[in-house]
Amino acid sequence: TKTQRLAGKKVLITAGPTHEAIDPVRFIGNHSTGKMGFALAERFASQGATVEVVSGPSTLSSTHAAIHVTKVHSAEEMLEACEAKFDNVDIAVFAAAVADYRPDTPAQEKIKKSNNTLTLHLVKNPDIAATLGKRKKKQFTVGFALETTNEIAYAKEKLHKKNFNLIVLNSLKDQGAGFAHDTNKITILDHDGSSTFDLKSKQEVANDIVDVVCKKMGL
Ligand code: PMT
């Protein structure tokens, strides 16, 4: 039946923001809440899958018996947690908003206020989706693209670069889409084409994404 179409399947989902330490009291972060990633986890689980969520700092959690959550802070921790799980999953969905850069050496003690300007030196973080995309075998992988301009072109570039099967584009130009809202508006792109969906609750958006994944996987 439709509700058991993912029975026996294992899914990895990244969710939420990452926090990159500046010193013991401060970090670089972003506006992701984890709502999109956790909505996907619930939908996959409701279709019979076992779900591993690797989440950055978020107030969200799950009580579903088939959903296991690992909490991390930084991009490096998120990568390490995902690497430990990736080889065993059938599907991976990268819904986290991972910081592209981190302070190179977080200060051991709180940075004191002194000069009028303060310069932080940032280094590139690992790209979790791209790293796992390189070593993927059987996995069906789904990325997200959060854009503010040139949306379709940038999303297509990420689809190829990160070796995704599908990419879910959300644009901050669309009202009610992206970070923190209970709603989202998406376009799903693959190597053959694209389909655009209406503004909906993140639960309904998760249903649409899971439907497309199942269809593409022939389930
Ligand atoms: O959590 P919410 O408040 O519900 O908001 C949901 C969301 C807007 C965060 C979500 O829908 C979303 O778009 N997530 C991806 C955000 C993002 O950082 O996109 P990106 O275009 O920068 O990255 C492209 C893809 O690579 C994403 O799948 C991202 O998870 C992944 N990535 C990026 C950088 C990095 N270092 N590692 C990654 O895995």
From TrEMBL:
Q: Which reaction does it catalyse?
A: N-[(R)-4-phosphopantothenoyl]-L-cysteine + H(+) = (R)-4'-phosphopantetheine + CO2; (R)-4'-phosphopantothenate + L-cysteine + CTP = N-[(R)-4-phosphopantothenoyl]-L-cysteine + CMP + diphosphate + H(+)
- Keyword check for Metal-binding: yes
Functional pathway: Cofactor biosynthesis; coenzyme A biosynthesis; CoA from (R)-pantothenate: step 3/5; Cofactor biosynthesis; coenzyme A biosynthesis; CoA from (R)-pantothenate: step 2/5
Per UniProt, the cofactor note for this protein states: Binds 1 FMN per subunit.
This entry's Enzyme Commission designation comes to 4.1.1.36, 6.3.2.5
Signal sequence region: none
Q: Where is this region: Phosphopantothenate--cysteine ligase?
A: 11-219
**Cofactors per UniProt?**
FMN; Mg(2+)
Residues bound to CTP: D100, K110, F144, K158, K162
In the record, what terms sit under GO molecular function? Answer: phosphopantothenate--cysteine ligase activity; phosphopantothenoylcysteine decarboxylase activity
Keywords, ordered alphabetically: Decarboxylase, Flavoprotein, FMN, Ligase, Lyase, Magnesium, Metal-binding, Multifunctional enzyme
FERM domain boundaries: 182-219
Which family does the similarity line name? In the N-terminal section; belongs to the HFCD (homo-oligomeric flavin containing Cys decarboxylase) superfamily.
Role: Catalyzes two steps in the biosynthesis of coenzyme A. In the first step cysteine is conjugated to 4'-phosphopantothenate to form 4-phosphopantothenoylcysteine, in the latter compound is decarboxylated to form 4'-phosphopantotheine. Catalyzes two sequential steps in the biosynthesis of coenzyme A. In the first step cysteine is conjugated to 4'-phosphopantothenate to form 4-phosphopantothenoylcysteine. In the second step the latter compound is decarboxylated to form 4'-phosphopantotheine.
User: Per its record, how is this protein called by name?
Assistant: Coenzyme A biosynthesis bifunctional protein CoaBC
Q: What is the lineage of its organism?
A: Bacteria, Pseudomonadati, Bacteroidota, Cytophagia, Cytophagales
Gene name on record? Answer: coaBC
Q: Which residues of the full protein are shown?
A: 180 to 398 of 398
